[in-house]
Amino acid sequence: MVRYGSIEAGGTKFVLAVGDNDLSIIKRVQIPTTYPKETLARCINFFSENMVDALGVGSFGPIDVAEDSDTYGQILATPKPEWQGTNILHELTKALKIPISVTTDVNASAYGEYIVGGGKNVSSLVYFTIGTGIGGGAIQDDQFIGGIGHAEMGHGFVMPRSDDGFSGSCPFHKNHCYEGLASGPTIEGRLGIPGQMVPRTDKVFDLISYYVSQMLFNCYLSLRPQKIILGGSVLSETELPRIQKYFAQFNHDYVVTPPLSDMIVTSKMVDNSSATIGNFALAKKQYSTV
Amino acid sequence: MVRYGSIEAGGTKFVLAVGDNDLSIIKRVQIPTTYPKETLARCINFFSENMVDALGVGSFGPIDVAEDSDTYGQILATPKPEWQGTNILHELTKALKIPISVTTDVNASAYGEYIVGGGKNVSSLVYFTIGTGIGGGAIQDDQFIGGIGHAEMGHGFVMPRSDDGFSGSCPFHKNHCYEGLASGPTIEGRLGIPGQMVPRTDKVFDLISYYVSQMLFNCYLSLRPQKIILGGSVLSETELPRIQKYFAQFNHDYVVTPPLSDMIVTSKMVDNSSATIGNFALAKKQYSTV
User: d(Cα A104, Cα A64) in Å, to the nearest integer?
Assistant: First the structure.
């Protein structure tokens, strides 16, 4: 039986998994992100003991995801300097000698949603994660959106709402991008207590919903996806009606949309498995084309 | 010899053209946009006298451009109510009995740039028109970006700059979208004199450059195109350095870009022919697939 592997390469942890031909998870472990040599050696070790026929990697970025590029699979300039210049694809291919596909973490999640999640019956979707950072991955007709690089939707220009005095958390854009105003750390930045301890009724969630909705609206106008799926730890079902309400306000009956309660949803995949399943599916796709 | 036709269906005029197999313009005429019956009859008449083998239509919108949709080719809710519900594709196909492709005016322009213009050596680009309205069309690997409908990039949410007291010109979004703050009518709206009479040194062009740059930046983060090509009457070469400067300010060295002077350019196609040539090329593509 053919088996597929998944690596979710995150800034603080790597999640390694093995799946069967139906993309079901057989085994899944987690290792800390340390130095490239050490962490990749543990990945190689894991997949030597748990053999797979192809591997999908969804990585933190920025990373070169252009398959025809000389540096495909290489981590670019990043806040994690020890990883900069590491070519994940080369290192893993050299050791494991199997077909490997590399994309971003959010693209992997988008693909998982597209194959078996909230987007399984549509041909276009965008997946956003709103967590420590904000990122988005978009699919249209089985292809990722992205010309010379992957999307960086969390850093879109936004102006602060006039009742929001927060100076922003983005080291690059301060309070002028979505990540700087709506990511998890902005809650503690505003209130001085960790986001998990803040009740959903606090008005900070209204602000965050407002900014996220703005991001969704601009994204919808550019891509016109059938579904927008929200993941990450910052938002919950509770905020959906607010986000939909602001979206409708921004749109003001201009552009046709599906019912917003159908179009804008949260990820329903169990155990936060969008990226794992997405990686399996991308490995399968890679396997079938070599 | 195979010949291709083009209809640029605009709100005030239709431009009809015939091209040869190399997509060169043989004949080009202009008729006023009146009522659908009358205007389409003149189109049909023109292409009966000037026979072509396939036709590309780039239309004002909103229009259904999804080829698998029951209402493909139909004008949707529009400020021109007499056109609402008109199915351009059906009317023309019934009379002319040739393969016809329908897309938006800006998609047609984007395609023209992609085939023979500023984007002929790239695989991804976005074309923006900044004129009476603002619109964008994006191409990635020979496909238009757009899931359940075409892009509406001119209506993205933007907050006014603090030194800009203008109340905005968009009937839907007032001063909260790019079109409402940066389209041609906003110049007269701010200064009380037509835009053509305002010197390029006026600070209104700085404001417009600022907003357009914001639109380009957000678009770049979502699509990562290799080229962004600007058309329409509002902007000229003069504003390019400003637009590039603001783009760099917004980005703040975050995301990798090609040199901005290469990436953000104005349309160089003579006689404003992007859409005409794009329609020819789309007609040719349609002709070769039937």
Answer: 9
Residue A149: closest C-alpha in chain B: B224
CATH number at residue B206: 3.30.420.40
ipTM: 0.95
d(CA B225, CA B141): 11
A143 vs B140: CB contact, 8 Å cut-off? yes
For residue range B192-240, list pLDDT tens digits in order: 999 999 999 999 999 999 999 999 999 999 999 999 999 999 999 999 9
Q: Given this model, what pLDDT does residue B166 score?
A: 97
Tell whether B95 and B191 lie within a shared domain: no
Identify the pLDDT of residue B81.
87
* Gap between the Cα atoms of A172 and A186, Å rounded: 14
Residue A147 lies in domain: 123-225+233-266
* Mean pLDDT across B123-149: 97
Q: What is the pLDDT of residue B290?
A: 73
Residues of A in contact with B258 (CB under 8 A): 148
CA-nearest residue to B78 within chain A is A254
Q: Give the pLDDT mean for B155-177.
A: 95
Tell me the nearest-neighbour CA distance from B161 into chain A, angstroms. Answer: 9
Minimum distance, in Å, between the CA of residue B111 and any CA atom of chain A: 16
Q: In terms of domains, do A187 and A135 share one?
A: yes
Residue A152, min C-alpha distance to chain B (Å): 5
Residues of chain A with pLDDT under 70: none
Are B61 and B94 part of one and the same domain? yes
Hey, of B148, B219, B229, B256, which one would you mutate to test binding to chain A, going by the most A CBs within 10 A of its CB? B148
Contact A182, A155 (CB under 8 A): no
Across chain B, mean pLDDT equals: 96
Q: In the structure, what pLDDT confidence band is assigned to residue B80 with cuts at 50, 70 and 90?
A: confident
Reported as a single tens digit per residue, the pLDDT across A51-91 is 999 999 999 989 999 988 999 999 998 778 899 999 999 99
In this structure, are A156 and A248 located in the same domain? Answer: yes
The answer to whether the CB atoms of B124 and A147 lie below 8 A apart is yes
| Edge-to-edge strand list for the sheet holding B264-266 | B143-144, B134-140, B124-130, B227-231, B264-266
Closest partner CB to B155 (pick from A153, A172, A254): A254
Number of domains in chain B: 2
CB contact (8 A) between residue B153 and residue A221: yes
CB contact under 8 A, A148 and B258: yes
B-chain CB neighbours of A218 within 8 Å are 156-157, 218, 222
Asked if A18 and A26 count as a contact pair (C-beta separation under 8 A), the reply is yes
User: What is the chain B residue with the closest CA to A178?
Assistant: B218
